[in-house]
Each structure stands twice: as structure tokens, then as C-alpha cells.
Amino acid sequence: VTGVQTCALPIYRHPRFLPDGEHFLFVARIGGGGVGSNSRVKIGSLTGEVGELMPASSNVEYAAGHLLYVFDQMLMARPFDPTSHEITGEAFPLAENIYVDMGALLGSFSASEQGTLAYQTGAARESLQSSVQWRDRSGNLLAEIGSPEIGRAHV
Q1: pLDDT in tens, 73-91
Q2: For residue 108, how far is the Cα from the chain centroid?
Q3: 150: how many CB neighbours lie within 10 A of its CB?
Q4: What is the four-CA torsion angle of 112, 133, 136, 63, rounded to 10 degrees?
Q5: Whole-structure pTM over 0.85, yes or no?
Q6: DSSP character string of 40-102
Q7: How many of the other CB atoms lie within 10 Å of CB of 70?
């Protein structure tokens, strides 16, 4: 939909459809990516229209009226109107110490349209030992699968 790339930059990554099924968010990676890069979050459509929304430091997803993305290892939410395609407010933090693969501009998080959120914390070079935790909207632990001691999750 954005056309075949004939040069190295920008690199288009991480497309995610908006609820209307015609428009989608994606990252145009320019340079090394990350905080301070020239990478941008863009909005495209199946008709080929493309617009720019904001600077990018990771992938971006839409959920429950917000754009979700990682900035400086903080998972951020920014109010967004999916009909007018406009940012409608200031960003605010949801979680900290989010794992990001800077080489791919990929924050380790996912959200449903209703706002259910999953994310992975940790530094890029940190041990891969982890557990899966289910938390309520206040951050209280509800359940845990696996344990950091054995580094595996059992389902």
C-alpha cells in the first residue's frame, strides 16, 4: 500500500490496523531509531493516503482511544481519535522498564481494542528468565505463571 521501497531509508515497520479496517498505523524508520531518531509514526490507508502523527521511538498500537508506544523504556498512552486521525491530548505513562529491541524499534507490548494490556519488562541484555503475570488496572498481582527462578512459563 505504501509502494515498493527502492532505497534503504525509510524502512516501514510494524503496521497495525485501526478499528475502521481501512486505516493503519506504521513506523517509518529513518536512521538508527530510538529516542532522538528521525523515525516517525505514520498513518496510511488502503487507498494509499499517508500522513504523519508524531516522532517514533518504538512500534505503536491503538487501543481504547489511545496510541500506545514506548519512549525511553516507558510504556506511554496518548489520546487519539481514530475517526479524525488526530492526537487529542498529552501522553502519560502506563508502565516503566519496558523491554525494547532498538534494532527493530519494537517495544514488547500488546493491547486489545478494549484496553487489555500485556507487556514485558527488562533491559535488552538482561537474562531471559521471566514469568507471566496477570495484574489489575491498579497494578495489583492477580496470578502468575512460571517463575523467574526456572525461567519458564507453563500453561
Answers
A1: 899 999 999 999 999 999 9
A2: 7
A3: 10
A4: -20
A5: no
A6: EEEEEETTS-EEEEEE-SS-EEEETTEEEEEETTEEEEEEEETTTTEE-S--EEEESSB-EET
A7: 26
